Amino acid sequence: MKKLLFILTLSLLVFGGFSFKQIYFTPLYFEIPKGFPKPVYDFKNNPLTEEGFQLGRNLFYDPILSRDNTISCASCHLQQTGFTHVDHDLSHGIEGRIGTRNSMTLMNLAWSKTFMWDGGVNHLDVQAIHPITSEVEMDETLENVVSKLQRSEKYQHLFQDAFGTKKITGQLTLKAISQFVVMLTTSNSKYDKVLRKEEQFTDMEQKGYAVFKRNCASCHQEPLFTNDGFENNGLSIDTTLNDVGRMRITQKETDRQKFKVPTLRNVQFTFPYMHDGRFETLNEVIKHYNSGIEKSATLSPKLQQPMLLSDDERTELLAFLKTLTDKEFLFNPRFSFPR
């Protein structure tokens, strides 16, 4: 990642006269991987710096964001599993409270227009408000978070380094978190290396790629492996959760049971799968699309016919999906707990 040290000289009015203070920032340059489209995130409104990134990284891993200081963003978004959780179907919050959905992965967010399974958040810079204020997640208010941060000498210094001020605000807190998560780019899997002609698929992986392009690519579009849209993928309704998906936001019957199409990058490690975490393995997921789709009025037109893959084709598809694993991303020390 390219870095360049530059100096911003700020002129400050002090007691009727002028004094000059040099503020040093280290800008980060967001590199668009080869073959990726232009990001939708507007970096002009939140210029990336190393100091902002490190502040956001500290906030991401700090349970100070929750009411009882026990739950951090990382509690449900673990790096080694594609920044999601794997130890339970539904997200868990403070006091052992259980949510209603599986946590989504956090990767390649610079290309996302909407967030959450139902698209209830439309900008990355405000996404963190949802888990912070959710009763079953952090159960806190942004005002209280700011108050706690203001009392922390550590965060006074980190905000000074990142934004040139010790005056901590909710807006700056959210922007710092965005600076961290927007940098979570994954683009160095075997699939990517094959496209760059650095490696080659095995025969089984190549056949699986062909199966994928015939059956899955319309929703999980390359290279991001999502279309950033919402689809009803034929799951039976969980009568306990009774989750209507996108319809909860739009109130449109045509959006009933539609959920955001998740990326398949690093999918080998992002189990459990689906919005309610009902499938533990990729084999179960493939079996669903192969023969378990339930018909309904809003079922995606792309899924009107089951895949009906042979045993060999299912094995080949699984082999290809594993080529989407980017271990460099999953174990990158820059994204881990700050030491």
Walk me through this protein's architecture.
With 339 residues, this protein is mainly α. It folds into two domains: 137 residues, Cytochrome Bc1 Complex, Chain D, domain 2 (Orthogonal Bundle), CATH 1.10.760.10; 138 residues, Cytochrome Bc1 Complex, Chain D, domain 2 (Orthogonal Bundle), CATH 1.10.760.10. It is built from twelve helices and four strands. The strands form two sheets. The protein has a two-stranded antiparallel sheet with strand order 1-2. A hairpin with a 2-residue loop joins β1 and β2. α1 packs antiparallel against α5, α1 packs across α6 and α8 packs across α11. The longest helix has 13 residues. The protein is globular and about 60 Å long.
Topology record:
Elements: E1 6-14, E2 17-25, H1 50-60, H2 124-127, H3 129-133, H4 142-150, H5 153-163, H6 170-181, H7 190-195, H8 203-215, E3 230-231, H9 247-250, E4 259-260, H10 282-292, H11 311-322, H12 327-330
Helix pairs in contact: 1-5, 1-6, 8-11
